[in-house]
From TrEMBL:
Domain of life: Bacteria
Protein name: Dipeptidyl aminopeptidase/acylaminoacyl peptidase
Biological process annotations from GO: proteolysis
Keyword set, alphabetical order: Aminopeptidase, Hydrolase, Protease, Serine protease, Signal
Keyword Metal-binding attached: no
Domain Peptidase S9A N-terminal as annotated: residue spans: 106-376
Gene Ontology molecular function: any one: aminopeptidase activity
Signal peptide: 1-25
InterPro entries: 6-blade_b-propeller_TolB-like, AB_hydrolase_fold, Pept_S9A_N, Peptidase_S9_cat, Peptidase_S9A
Residues of the Peptidase S9 prolyl oligopeptidase catalytic domain: 440-650
Length: 653
C-alpha cells in the first residue's frame, strides 16, 4: 500500500513538473533578437493604433561639410540611425553610412589634406566604441582603434593633422588621454594616465602645443588641467581642495586665457575666464542663476555660444570674447537646443532644436542678420503634433522643509488633450540619478495621452541636476531613499488633485529610474496598479560588484562603497530584491543583454525572485541591445508591449 501511494505521488509530481514546464515553455518565446517571457500576443488594435507614433523620426546636427558643401546629420530611415549629408537648407538627405549598429557622431578634419571625418560605433549596445575614419574620396570606413577598448571624446588639433581622444586601452578600466597622428592614425601615443576618473580633452591651444583637459570624478567634483604636449607637464587650473565641478572648455585666440564652467563658489555651473599668467578667475555669466551646459567657439575664437538650462528648457546665448558680453538669441521655439557648432568660415551657427511639437531638426542661424534656416523637416508619421500634450511645469510639496517652508519638487505634467479627467497617471522617473527630465518631443507620451487617455507626470526629485549643487547632493550616500519619499509625496499630491484618478497610478523608469520604480513598488504598492522597470538596478551591492570595471569607482562615489560594512548593510536594506514580499502588483521588466552599466543579471534576479514569490511579472530581453533600446524594431516591440501592459494592468481593459 505504501509503495502504491509512493508510486501515485511520484506520478503526480512528474505530471505537475511536466505541466509546469509546458506552461513555462508556452510563456517563453523568441521573436527576432527578443526573448519574451509572459508577454502576451499584442492585439492588432494596439499595433494599428501605435504604428503612426512609431514612424516619427528626428535629425541631429553632426558637423559642417568641408568647402561649404552642406552639413552632416544623423537620422534614422531604417532600423538604426546613420549619417547623411544635406547639401542645402531643405535639401534631400543622402545616406553615407550603412551599419547594423547606430552611428550618431562624426568630426571632419580641419585640414584640406585629409578629406574625411572620424566617428565612433559600438556593437550591440556594449558601449565599447571604436574609432573609425571615413574617407570622403572613396566613401569607405576603416577602424583605427584597437577593437577592444572603449574610446570617445575625439578632438582635432587646429591644423587637423592630429587628434586627441580618451581610451581605456591601457588596462580596460581607467580612461587616459591619447594622441594620434594622421600619418599613421592607428598608432596612438599615451599622454595622460595619472590617477582615476575620466580624462577628457576639451581643446588645443592656438599653436597646438598644449591641451586643456578635464578629469571627471563625479557629478559634484571634477578638475581642469593644462597639459604641455612637448614636456608632458600637467598643470592644474582649479583648487583641488574644493569640492566643485570645474570643466575646461576652450582657449581664447591669444592662448593666454581659458574659458571653463564651474560651480566653485556658486550654486550653478557658471562660465568663467581663467588667466594663465595670473591664475585669476573672472566670472562671466554669474548673473544667470541656472546651469550653463553646452558651449561652442568659432574658428577665429572671437565668439562663443552657450546654452542655459532654465528650469528644464534650453536658452541659447552668444558671447563676444573681446568684451565678455553676451545676449540671448531670440525667436527660437521653447524646447531643447543641442549639438551646435559654428561654421568654419561664416558667421553662422548650426543647432539641433527639439520641442514638444517638433522632433529634433537642424537649423542654422545667421549671426549677422539673425535669419534662421531650416535644413531638415523630420517626418511625424502623418500626425497632427499640435494635438500632442503640452508640458506643464508644476511643483508639489514634499516631506521636509527649506528655510521654514515645505520643499518644492518640480515636475512636468502631460495631460490628454481630447478627453476629460480624471485621468489615469503614469509617473515617469528619470535615470542618473543626477539626470533631469527635460520636455522634448515624445511620440510615446503622445500615444499614451491621445490614444489611451493616460496623463504622464515626470518629477525631478531631489538629486536631479539643473537645480543647483545643493539639490543635486540631497540623495547621496545614506540619503538614497529620500528621493523615493519624494515619489511617495507625488502620489499623495495626485490623490488630492481631482483631475487625476487616484485609483489608477503606474510607475515607469529606466536605469536608476528603474530602481526608483522597484522601490516605489514595495514602498507604495498599495497605491499603485503596476510598474515598468527598464534596465533598472535591483540590488545595489550586486550592481556595484558587476557593473563594468571602468564605472565602478565613479558609481561608488554616487551610491556609496559596498565594501564598507555599514554602507553595504544600508545598500542591502534598500535593495528591492530584499523586499520581494512587498511587491504584489504586476511588474514589467525590460533589459538589454549587453548592458555594461546595469548588467542583465540585475533584471534576471528580480524576475526570478518575483516568480518564486508567485508574483506577476512580464520580462523582455533584447539580445542585441545594451543600456536602452536603439534599434527601431526593438523599440517598436517594446512600446507595443508597454501599451498592452498598461491597458491590462492600469486601465484594467
Amino acid at each position: 500500500m505504501k509503495n502504491f501511494k509512493f508510486y501515485i505521488k511520484t506520478i503526480l509530481i512528474c505530471l505537475f513538473v511536466a505541466v509546469f514546464n509546458s506552461i513555462e515553455a508556452q510563456n517563453r518565446k523568441e521573436v527576432g533578437n527578443m526573448i519574451l517571457e509572459n508577454v502576451p500576443e499584442i492585439p492588432e488594435e494596439i499595433t494599428t493604433r501605435i504604428q503612426q507614433y512609431q514612424n516619427t523620426r528626428s535629425a541631429s546636427f553632426v558637423d559642417w561639410l568641408p568647402n561649404d558643401e552642406g552639413i552632416l546629420i544623423s537620422t534614422q530611415f531604417g532600423n538604426t540611425s546613420q549619417l547623411h549629408t544635406v547639401l542645402q537648407a531643405g535639401g534631400a538627405r543622402n545616406q553615407i553610412t550603412f551599419f547594423d549598429e547606430p552611428v550618431s557622431n562624426g568630426s571632419f578634419s580641419p585640414s584640406v589634406t585629409y578629406n574625411g571625418f572620424l566617428f565612433t560605433k559600438d556593437i550591440g549596445g556594449n558601449e565599447f566604441s571604436q574609432i573609425y575614419w571615413y574617407d570622403m574620396n572613396n566613401r569607405t570606413s576603416t577602424m583605427i582603434s584597437d577593437g577592444e577598448s572603449r574610446n570617445y571624446g575625439i578632438n582635432w588639433s587646429n591644423k587637423g593633422d592630429r587628434f586627441a581622444f580618451t581610451s581605456s586601452r591601457r588596462n580596460k578600466k581607467d580612461f587616459d588621454i591619447y594622441i594620434s597622428d594622421m600619418k599613421s592614425p592607428k598608432s596612438a601615443t599615451l599622454k595622460v594616465d595619472r590617477g582615476g576618473g575620466y580624462w577628457i580633452v576639451s581643446d588645443w591651444s592656438p599653436d597646438d602645443s598644449k591641451l586643456i583637459i578635464t578629469q571627471y570624478l563625479s557629478s559634484t567634483k571634477s578638475n581642469a588641467f593644462i597639459f604641455n604636449i612637448e614636456t608632458n607637464k600637467l598643470t592644474q587650473i582649479n583648487d583641488d581642495k574644493t569640492e566643485a565641478v570645474f570643466l575646461a572648455r576652450f582657449w581664447d585666440k591669444t592662448g593666454k586665457k581659458i574659458y571653463a564652467t564651474t560651480n566653485q563658489g556658486k550654486e550653478f555651473n557658471t562660465l568663467v575666464q581663467y588667466d594663465v599668467d595670473t591664475k585669476e578667475i573672472t566670472y562671466v555669466t554669474d548673473k544667470i542663476e541656472w546651469d550653463v551646459e553646452e558651449v561652442a567657439i568659432n574658428k577665429p575664437k572671437t565668439k562663443a555660444a552657450f546654452t542655459v538650462n532654465e528650469n528644464g528648457f534650453s536658452r541659447l546665448y552668444l558671447l563676444d570674447l573681446e568684451s565678455n558680453t553676451y545676449e540671448k538669441v531670440s525667436n527660437l521655439p521653447l524646447g531643447q537646443i543641442s549639438s551646435f557648432k559654428f561654421h568654419p568660415s561664416q558667421a553662422t551657427l548650426a543647432v539641433t532644436l527639439n520641442t514638444a511639437e517638433t522632433p529634433g531638426d537642424v537649423y542654422s542661424i545667421d549671426l549677422t542678420t539673425g535669419e534662421h534656416k531650416r535644413w531638415t523637416s523630420s517626418e511625424v508619421g502623418g500626425l497632427d503634433t499640435s494635438t500632442f500634450p503640452k508640458p506643464e511645469l508644476i511643483s508639489y510639496e514634499t516631506y521636509d522643509e527649506v528655510d521654514g517652508k515645505k520643499r518644492q519638487i518640480p515636475a512636468f505634467v502631460y495631460k490628454p488633450q481630447n478627453t476629460a479627467g480624471p485621468y489615469p497617471v503614469m509617473i515617469s522617473i528619470h535615470g542618473g540619478p543626477e539626470g533631469q527630465h527635460t520636455p522634448n518631443f515624445s511620440s510615446f507620451y503622445a500615444f499614451l495621452a491621445n490614444e489611451m487617455g493616460i496623463a504622464i507626470i515626470a518629477p525631478n526629485v531631489r538629486g536631479s541636476s539643473g537645480y543647483g549643487k545643493t539639490y543635486l547632493k540631497l540623495d547621496n550616500g545614506f540619503k538614497r531613499e529620500d528621493s523615493v519619499k519624494d515619489i511617495g509625496m507625488l502620489i499623495e499630491w495626485i490623490e488630492k488633485t481631482p483631475e487625476f484618478n487616484k485609483d489608477k497610478i503606474a510607475v515607469f523608469g529606466g536605469s536608476y529610474g528603474g530602481y526608483m520604480v522597484l522601490s516605489s513598488m514595495y514602498n507604495f504598492g498599495d497605491k499603485l496598479q503596476c510598474g515598468i522597470d527598464i534596465v533598472g538596478i535591483s540590488n545595489f551591492v550586486t550592481f556595484l560588484e558587476n557593473t563594468e570595471a571602468y564605472r565602478r569607482d565613479l558609481r561608488r562615489l554616487e551610491y556609496g562603497d559596498e565594501r564598507d560594512p555599514k554602507m553595504r548593510e544600508y545598500l542591502l536594506s534598500i535593495s528591492p530584491t530584499n523586499h520581494i514580499d512587498k511587491i504584489t502588483k504586476p511588474l514589467f521588466v525590460i533589459q538589454g543583454a549587453n548592458d555594461p552599466r546595469v548588467p542583465a543579471s540585475e533584471s534576471e534576479q528580480m524576475v526570478k525572485s518575483i516568480r518564486e514569490n508567485k508574483g506577476e511579472v512580464w520580462y523582455m530581453l533584447a539580445k542585441d541591445e545594451g543600456h536602452g533600446f536603439r534599434k527601431k524594431v526593438n523599440r517598436d516591440r517594446m512600446t507595443e508591449a508597454i501599451a498592452m501592459f498598461l491597458q491590462t494592468n492600469l486601465l484594467n481593459e
